[in-house]
Design a protein that fits this description.
Length: about 350
């Protein structure tokens, strides 16, 4: 079932794809249709790539479930001229979101600029959305930094700095039972890219259910019910494409060459094959002996791309498919409850469902 973009604002990079179209009078409606607010907070350089990643994943995972997306931006996220122009053309603002109801919300992270997330310029806007989501959605997905901000705001759980970037594709075991992880196997692989973490002990003490976790990768996904909304948190990035980690690695190398970071970035773990590993290590050795930004022209990107595989795709599709099915089921339950209450007979103390 093709994705539907509400508001007639279809992004140019998707205009030629048959699977995505603006909402019209023929658009799917009813209890089985899932309306999702997509809040994209990623930095300008990753803004449009993130759209593609989530659209691709939702399109593949939705199957026969009609999905309608409405794009929103969070007030206060720093933007350049190009990024702001893109948002102005294709996204709705926070006020539009807070005056609406949706079945689900997906909120991405962004690149932190403050050690304390409460000091970020978008903090007030973000927390308003979190409060709104508790009572106006069936389920809410918080990705990466949004997950850290969510648990900090709701339960005071602080994130902990890591000695090095948690970067690569890691194996995780299923440690919590929930329909969201059904059909994924006992172990899953997902990409992570972060400098901080929230820890399992703090999460479980605050009533969260940890779904996937490993010794090397830490906590991957976890969840908690807030009022009527199930909040699902990913410290990693199931939505990433096969080349996303490579792009981030290349960006971090360029930052090193520009003097924007002191150390050469660590290679993403579990990502490159032997041949690609050899090529990027050889490039690193050259750069460390002659630190010049011009050397990025010889980065072996073309040679490496051909070996990259999206080994987490099936697991990502399963989890998002399960999430969409969860939203459909809970939405139907909520729709049935008022109908049952309407035919409640006090004298008989019985309720019967309207058919």
């Amino acid at each position: 079932m093709p994705l539907i973009i509400e508001g007639g604002r279809v992004l140019p990079r998707w205009a030629e794809k048959n699977s995505l179209r603006p909402a019209g009078v023929e658009s799917s409606r009813g209890a089985e249709c899932v309306r999702i607010a997509f809040i994209n907070n990623m930095p300008d350089a990753a803004l449009e790539d993130t759209e593609i990643q989530f659209f691709d994943l939702l399109d593949a995972a939705s199957g026969d479930i009609p999905v309608r997306l409405k794009l929103h931006s969070l007030t206060g996220v720093p933007r350049g001229e190009r990024g702001q122009q893109h948002l102005n053309s294709f996204y709705f603002g926070t006020d539009d979101l807070l005056n609406s109801r949706f079945d689900g919300v997906i909120m991405t992270g962004t690149e932190p600029r403050q050690p304390n997330l409460r000091n970020e310029p978008y903090w007030s806007s973000l927390t308003s959305v979190l409060d709104w989501a508790e009572g106006n959605t069936v389920s809410t997905i918080l990705s990466c930094l949004a997950a850290h901000a969510g648990v900090l705001y709701s339960d005071g759980i602080e994130r902990h700095p890591l000695s090095d970037k948690q970067f690569g594709v890691f194996d995780f075991a299923k440690v919590g039972n929930h329909p969201l992880t059904g059909g994924t196997g006992e172990r899953v692989r997902f990409p992570h890219s972060r400098w901080n973490e929230v820890q399992a002990e703090a999460l479980t003490a605050a009533g969260y259910l940890v779904l996937t976790q490993s010794v090397e990768g830490g906590v991957d996904s976890f969840m908690k019910k807030r009022k009527q909304s199930l909040f699902v948190h990913f410290q990693g990035h199931p939505e990433y494409g096969a080349q996303t980690l490579l792009k981030e690695y290349r960006r971090d190398i360029k930052r090193f060459l520009r003097g924007e970071r002191e150390t050469y970035p660590s290679m993403p773990k579990g990502y490159f094959d032997a041949a690609a590993t050899r090529l990027v290590n050889e490039f690193r050795d050259v750069v460390l002996s002659d630190r010049r930004e011009e050397l990025m022209e010889s980065f072996p990107e073309v040679a490496v791309i051909g070996s990259l595989q999206n080994t987490w795709r099936s697991s990502a599709m399963s989890i998002y498919r399960n999430w969409l099915q969860y939203v459909v089921t809970k939405k139907a339950d909520l729709a049935a409850f008022p109908a049952m209450a309407a035919v409640y007979h006090p004298t008989s103390r019985k309720r019967s469902a309207v058919r």
